[in-house]
Amino acid sequence: MNPLRAEDYKPEQIQPTMTLNLEGEPCPYPVVYSLDAMEQLRKGEILEVIADCPQSFHAVPEEARRAGYVLLGVPVTDGPTIRFYILKP
């Protein structure tokens, strides 16, 4: 049986371990706070990040991958709000 790939995850399937609401925080804070929160998680746990800074749409996934984390699915947008799901492998 093949394991699910990160892009196979659907938001309704994801059970985050921690949620970080960063609405109203300008960049680079969504990236900084997300990476700090990821350090607190254990292997296999998932962080949900909620942001509304337009730059975070690209910056959060890029920096999370650079730090060795896995972005699950694609960022989910609802108006200005963006949700990211990041797995600590």
UniProtKB/TrEMBL annotation:
<comment type="similarity">
    <text>Belongs to the sulfur carrier protein TusA family.</text>
</comment>
<feature type="domain" description="UPF0033">
    <location>
        <begin position="20"/>
        <end position="44"/>
    </location>
</feature>
<dbReference type="Pfam" id="PF01206">
    <property type="entry name" value="TusA"/>
</dbReference>
<protein>
    <submittedName>
        <fullName>Sulfur carrier protein YedF</fullName>
    </submittedName>
</protein>
<dbReference type="InterPro" id="IPR001455">
    <property type="entry name" value="TusA-like"/>
</dbReference>
